[in-house]
Amino acid sequence: MPDAAPGSDTLPATRRGAALSAALIALERLAELGESIEDEWTYVTALAEAGRSRLRTAAGVDTAAPLAPELGAAVAGACAETARIVDPHRAIDWLSTFPAVVELALGTPGGPSRGASAAPGVPGAGPAAGRAAG
């Protein structure tokens, strides 16, 4: 079985809510693929729920808030990578890491995703970066 399917043409989001929507769609696709492994269904379901919660928290309350172009592109790139996954085991791996990648790009509401980076040379690094590592 091939490791990857053709990529996605996900456009970069310009608003936090659009990035959240794209990320939630990508997360659901990963969950559906992972759930195809019957013995992993409970684990996949728990990972997906935790991922949805993390993404919604990272997007914040003001989903209409602008998202810096490079951060919108980062979320779009991560979503495009998930679209290439065809192996259910890889999908499960990505379920545990994908929310952290998007969380880094979205940062915290009112934080780095609105413009400047909290860490020089690392777009979106800041308070959410510490949570994503844990």
CA radius of gyration is 14 Å
**Main sheet overview:** none
Strand content is under 5%
What's the N-to-C terminus distance?
A: 32 Å
Number of separate strands: 0
Counting DSSP H or I runs of 4 or more residues, the number of helices is: 5
Descriptive overview:
- It is a single chain.
- This protein is an all-alpha fold.
- The protein has five helices and no strands.
- The protein has one domain.
- Helix content is 59%, strand content 0%.
- Helix 1 packs antiparallel against helix 2, helix 1 runs antiparallel to helix 4 and helix 2 (41-59) packs parallel to helix 4 (88-106).
- The longest helix is centred in the N-terminal third of the chain and has 19 residues, at 16-34.
- It is elongated and about 40 Å long.
- The N and C termini lie far apart (32 Å).
List keywords for this structure.
134 residues; mainly alpha; elongated; disordered C terminus
Question: How are the SSEs ordered, and which strands pair?
Answer:
Blueprint lengths: L15 H19 L6 H19 L9 H15 L4 H19 L20 H7 L1
Concise synopsis of the structure shown:
With 134 residues, the protein is mainly alpha-helical.
